[in-house]
Every structure is written in C-alpha cells, then in structure tokens.
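Sequence only, no structure available. Ideas?
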Amino acid sequence: MLRADRRQHHGASQSADFFDPSNTAGEVARREVAKLACEEMCAALASDATDIAIFDATNTTVERRRWLKEVLVEQEAATKVRFQLVFIESVCGDERVSTCRVVCHSR
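Reply:
I predicted one. Tokens follow.
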C-alpha cells in the first residue's frame, strides 16, 4: 500500500536522494504518502475488512514513531475504533546487507 501510494503520487522510481533524511522535500513527500497509507490502513481496520494490519515503513526515529502515534490517535477519533500500536524492530549489524538494501531499494 505505502509503496503503491508513493509511486502514484511521486512517480514509479525515486533515487536514493529521495530517502535521504537530510532531504527536507523528500521527508515531506514521504510523510504525506505515509499518512495516506496509514489512513487507508485504519479505514480497512474500521470497516472490518481486516483484523490486523502491518504498517511496514521506516519508523526508526522517536519523532517518526511519535508522528505515527499522533496519526493513529486522529484516526481513532475519526473512526471511533481503538487501534493497538506495536513496533517491531529488526536490527542488522552487517553493513553489506544494509548497503545492499539501500542500493536495491533505490532501483
């Protein structure tokens, strides 16, 4: 959902610069698309179309997690549905794997 929304709103492919944390315009665009995807996810949960949803995105910073929680609180008020938020982390200490993920993702 998130990738499809990003491609629909910002093109089918972005360079690695789009995902660079220092790219302010990229951050705004990524956040806009993430909010749309989160709203779609909450709507599906509220409609009983699904019972569980995974918002698979980069939510690694405290700020980003706080923002996601705020969006969910907004959606709870809009849908009158209570959402349970859980963060699952996967840590990779192998720089080769991390580099490959970035390079493969930017293709």
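The first helix runs from residue 2 to 10.
Hope that gets you unstuck.
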